[in-house]
Amino acid sequence: MFLQLVANGLVTGAVVAIAALGVSLVYGILGFVNFAYGDVMTFGAFVAVLFDGRLGMAMIVAAVLAMVATAILSLGLEGVLWRPLRARRAGFMSLFLASIGLALVLRQAIFLVAGPQPRSYDVDPYKVYVLGSVRLSGAQVVAVAVAAVAIVTVALVLRVTSVGRTMRAVADDRALAAVSGIDTGRVIGVTWILCGLIAGLAGVLSALVQGSFDPNFGFSLLLPVFAAVVLGGIGSAYGALLGGLVLGLATEVSTWSGFHGGVNPVYKPVVAFAVLIAVLLLRPQGLLGRARTL
Amino acid sequence: MSTIASGDFWAFVGVVAGIYALLGLGIQLEFGFAGLLNFGHVAFMAIGAYTMAILVVKLGWSMWIATPLAVVAAAAAGVALGLPTLRLRADYFAIATIAFSEIVRYVATNEETLTGGSQGTINLAGAGQAASYNGDWDRFESWVQSTLRLGSKDAAMLAIVWLVALASCTALWAAGRTPWGRVLRGIREDEDVVSSLGKNVFAFRLQALAVGSALAGLAGCFYAWQFSFFSPADFAPLLTFFAWMIVILGGLGRFFAVPVGAVVFGVLFAGTRFFDFAPFAWFDSAERAYLRLMLIGLAIIGLILFRPQGVLGRREELVLD
Amino acid sequence: MSALLEVEGVVRSFGSIHAVDGASFAVEQGSITSLIGPNGAGKSTLFNVISGFVRADAGRVLLDGSAIERRPAHAIAQAGLVRTFQTARVLARMTVRDNVLLATPEHPGERLLQSIVRPRRVRGRERAARALSDELLTLVGLQDHADALASTLSGGQRKLLDFARALMARPRLLLLDEPMAGVNPTLRVQLLEHVRERREREGVTFLIVEHDLELVMRVSDLVVVMNEGRVIASGAPASVSADPRVVDAYLGAPP
Questions:
Q1: Would residue B182 count as lying in a domain?
Q2: Which chain B residue lies closest to A292 (C-alpha atoms)?
Q3: Contact state of C102 with B197 under an 8 Å Cβ cutoff
Q4: Considering the entire predicted model, what is its pTM?
Q5: pLDDT of chain A, 294 residues: tens digit per residue
Q6: Into how many domains does chain B fold?
Q7: Is C14 on the interface with A (CB under 8 A)?
Q8: Could you give the count of Cα atoms lying within 13 Å of B82 in the half-sphere of its Cβ?
Q9: How far apart are CA B193 and CA B190, in angstroms?
Q10: DSSP string of C92-135?
Q11: Which of A90, A96, A276 sits opposite B99 (nearest CB)?
Q12: What's the CA gap between B249 and B21, in Å, rounded?
């Protein structure tokens, strides 16, 4: 039973981790908390449903198309919203509030176009993989495998490619980067594309794991994702990953009966929130973040 | 189906606007003055509403005792949230407040014996009985209606809500002009400077949060009376967002701008229901609701882009950075 | 005279940077003491530690014999140690007068309950505070700007406002963080006069971080020199300026 919970936790954690990675990158490079991220993920999930369900394509193709569509959306939003705001020297509060407005617009647009009924992907729900005492559905295995690959890919991109290195430079110190001749406009564009791809993937994977989803599901994922980002250390990509895994494990394992009967599974999201608040109190810089000075 | 000229409909809109004005006043104090990004405001509304309903239904207390206690409970919850989280930076604090409001909603949904669970307060007296907490309130409303010689109960509700909202507005305005209010404004500007002058920034913020939460609790009680029963789903984060919109719409930093923002928002939101022309005509009524919410989201983005000081604010006094 | 402020072995690092590496010195009651040193010597960090904005990793800070290194910044200010900031930080969207009034110490009106319950007492205190603020604004020559928003002030005027505001808090010890930076020479002389006058009239003790060495030597009773996080010399201006270690520090320091 315990191992099953650990396995479930790793699946949840992997998916949260990949979403958290995107949020962390936006925060690190663009300097604000993007409240619309959950709804961008929802957008990705629904685009995939369009291709998978209606047009009957293979899940993989649908997912890739969803990622591309989400990347295009993110880039479009950069041109229409974020760049004009930055031109008006908007600070992180204005950007945060604008992202809340954007979240509303995106979510309602999805409701409008796709309707409120729950959707699911055209995958075999009965396929089960058994590993010792652990049972995982096909969706879960795919999710964790793809998430792992995606995480490694993004990590390599950031570490090895020149564009990745400039992104890290901008994250470290934007003013300095601009003065050193780095084309911050281009880096920002690349960041949105990358985060769009990640958000699209995270949306599809979360929807896959959840099974059935409606236009609200991305937003409801946002808080556990924020919790993971803060837990790992805001601005630290590796921290977001670690935070996601830890959070996924903590939420699932907390229901284990060995812990005084365990937390009522219904309260799992509350565990995530409680972890978030605890981290904010005890170690606001997170596990891997740097402590702030005056 | 109400027509655009229906008095009852607009009275209803007016009441809801008044409730939002109370919510907005709390946010004006917390953000417009103390610089706090509280996105969990709706949680205190829920705490106020539930405390009042539970005390009336389960303990049989009079509304006149239950309501002040509900407001105090909301304020206490604000202090409880603030004590551990106020030392955090603004956006971290915002996330913590959202987490808190979700926890409250979760607890309300799942603790059925305490709150009636997901079906709401109708369940408060136990299964099979339809609980009501409106007894005292109905009597009070009738008294107001006859004393003021008003045509309907809705008119009485409208009068009471707005009387309270405007009284709160005036009280807050007066408080803002005291030395206490001055320190809050200073904290909004530069909390390090205020600390360096010997003021306990944390304590002031906590007070602003307590008062703001109390106002939200009061708004929750009015919500409860207006709708006669409520459930956890009524206190969705969207309400906090609407309250924020109203404050930004009216203009940050001025208390009297909040009722103005609330009325404008209420009229726009309700008025769009009657839009029969394109593009609204293309959609059925369920879909129009989504379209209207979309427009609200676009409106707030537009406000931040083009007029961040709001309808009544002045450019130099811009509070949004 | 006993030392009003004693700094003993303060250490503060940021990661691998030892900003303050064991600094010790004392500030006598009623003196004007200057803290000088090349850039990166640790002066600002030490200021932040003394005023409670940064926690020391080790060491003690004593104000009038009481240890304050663990107290929060506002408590230290209430104990009489007030500081200004290197870049004059005015409360931009408030009026000049409100900036100064905010510094009023122990104003009953700052307790909301008092404002409600004892309005007359609050009003009386506010009137007295306004009179004092007008005096201070006149002292620094900003009286004509009293009702303007602080954001309309020039850089030099902001420094003056910072100074007036700090004085309003009735400090025993006033820490001035580069008060002359960005200020024109005439204004510098004025500020200097204000400092001297406060010391004479009110017995305010001053600890000043400054780069204008000529000014420092003219006005200080004691000069403390820092380099690389440590105090390398302290004494009367004449002896310090002749001290070879001090000359070395300034000549050998990066620009």
A1: yes
A2: B89
A3: yes
A4: 0.84
A5: 788 888 888 998 999 999 998 988 888 888 888 889 999 999 999 999 888 766 556 788 889 999 999 999 999 999 999 999 888 877 777 788 788 889 989 999 999 888 888 988 877 777 788 888 888 888 888 888 888 888 888 888 888 888 788 887 777 776 677 777 777 788 889 999 999 999 999 999 999 888 889 898 888 888 788 888 878 877 677 888 888 898 888 888 888 777 776 777 777 777 887 887 787 778 767 677 654 432
A6: 1
A7: yes
A8: 26
A9: 6
A10: TTSBHHHHHHTT-TT-GGGSHHHHHH-HHHHHHHHHHHHHHHHH
A11: A276
A12: 12
Hey, which residues 109-148 in chain C have their CB within 8 Å of chain A? none
**Alpha carbons A250 and A243: distance in angstroms, whole number:** 10
Chain A residue set in contact with C, beta carbons under 8 Å: 290, 293-294
Residue C28 in contact with partner chain B when CB distance is under 8 A: no
Q: Are B253 and B319 in contact (CB under 8 A)?
A: yes
Q: How far apart are the CA of C218 and the nearest CA of chain A, in angstroms?
A: 32
Is the predicted ipTM greater than 0.85, yes or no? yes
Tokens in use for C195? 């400092």
Query: Do C235 and C248 meet the contact criterion of CB atoms below 8 Å apart?
Result: no
Q: Write a three-state SS string for chain B.
A: CCCCCCHHHHHHHHHHHHHHHHHHHHHHHHHHHCCCCCCCHHHHHHHHHHHHHHHHHHCCCCHHHHHHHHHHHHHHHHHHHHHHHCCCCHHHHHHHHHHHHHHHHHHHHHCHHHHCHHHCHHHCCCCCCCCCCCHHHHHHHHHHHHHCCCCCHHHHHHHHHHHHHHHHHHHHHHHHCCHHHHHHHHHHHCHHHHHHCCCCHHHHHHHHHHHHHHHHHHHHHHHHHHHCCCCHHHHCHHHHHHHHHHHHHHCCCCCCHHHHHHHHHHHHHHHHHHCCCCCHHHCCHHHHHHHHHHHHHHHHHHHHHHCCCCCCCCHHHCCCC
SS3 C207: strand
Give the Å distances, CA to CA, from B18 to A128, B226, B242, B263, C226. Answer: 55, 11, 13, 8, 62
Is-contact B144 B267, C-beta < 8 A?
Answer: no
Question: C175 to chain B: nearest residue by CA?
Answer: B196
Residue B288 covered by a domain? no
Closest residue in C to A290 (Cα) is C15
Rounded Cα distance, B63 and C188, in Å: 66
User: Is C48 part of the contact surface with chain A (CB cutoff 8 Å)?
Assistant: yes
Would you say residue B252 lies in a domain?
no
Give the SS3 label for residue A78. Answer: helix
Measured distance CA(C110)–CA(C122) in Å, rounded: 9
Beta bridge partners of C95: C149
Q: Between chains, do A293 and C53 touch, taking CB under 8 Å as contact?
A: no
Which residues of B fall within a CB distance of 8 Å from C91?
185-186, 189-190, 193
What range does the domain containing B160 cover?
15-235
For residue A260, the SS3 value is coil
Interchain contact C53–A (C-beta under 8 A): yes
CA–CA dist B20, B10 (Å, integer): 15
Phi-psi map region of B193: left, alpha, beta (phi>0 left; psi -120 to 50 alpha):
alpha
Q: What residues of A are in contact with residue C14 (Cβ under 8 Å)? A: 293
Tell me whether residue B222 is in a domain.
Answer: yes
The residue ranges of every structural domain in chain A are 11-215
The verdict on whether omega for the bond into residue B279 sits within 30 degrees of 0, i.e. cis, is yes
Which of B178, B198, B317 shows the shortest C-beta gap to C93?
A: B317
Q: Beta strands C32-36 and C205-209: pairing type?
A: parallel
